[in-house]
Write a structure and sequence with these properties.
CATH architecture: 2-Layer Sandwich
Number of strands: 6
Length: 128
């Protein structure tokens, strides 16, 4: 079971973090086609447990209908599309108590690539 500080240090050792706070950090994932996708990893407490949250914006609210978002969710093995005010976000949450570094790497890459695929499909530009 890694601590939040260990997760953050692991991320620092492998990636360039573009933003850091006490309970979150942000990085930009770069794909081979020169597309970029920002992903935020944060921690929070719920049900007397520590959780890690992976989130990446994918398009504006008016660029994808709620029905399409729900249909896309059905096919995801990792993560879900959520509405955060005016933006759809691809998000995945896991318990810190059972997380290992593989469970850090997998959602990190899946959430970033899923959000980028949705952005390519629905957004006019590479905004996120």
């Amino acid at each position: 079971m890694p601590t939040w500080d260990e997760v953050r240090e692991y991320a620092r050792s492998k990636y360039k973090l573009s933003e850091e706070g006490e309970n979150h950090f942000k990085m930009t994932w770069q794909f081979g086609n020169d597309r970029l996708q920002a992903i935020i990893v944060s921690r929070f407490q719920a049900f007397d447990r520590d959780w890690a949250d992976f989130a990446s914006a994918c398009c504006k609210k008016d660029q994808m209908s709620p029905e399409v978002a729900l249909e896309k969710n059905w096919n995801f093995a990792v993560g879900a599309i959520c509405l955060d005010r005016e933006f759809y976000v691809v998000r995945y949450t896991c318990q810190m108590a059972t997380m290992d570094m593989e469970e850090f790497e997998l959602p990190l890459s899946v959430i970033a690539s899923t959000a980028d695929q949705i952005e390519q499909e629905f957004a006019a530009e590479d905004n996120f």
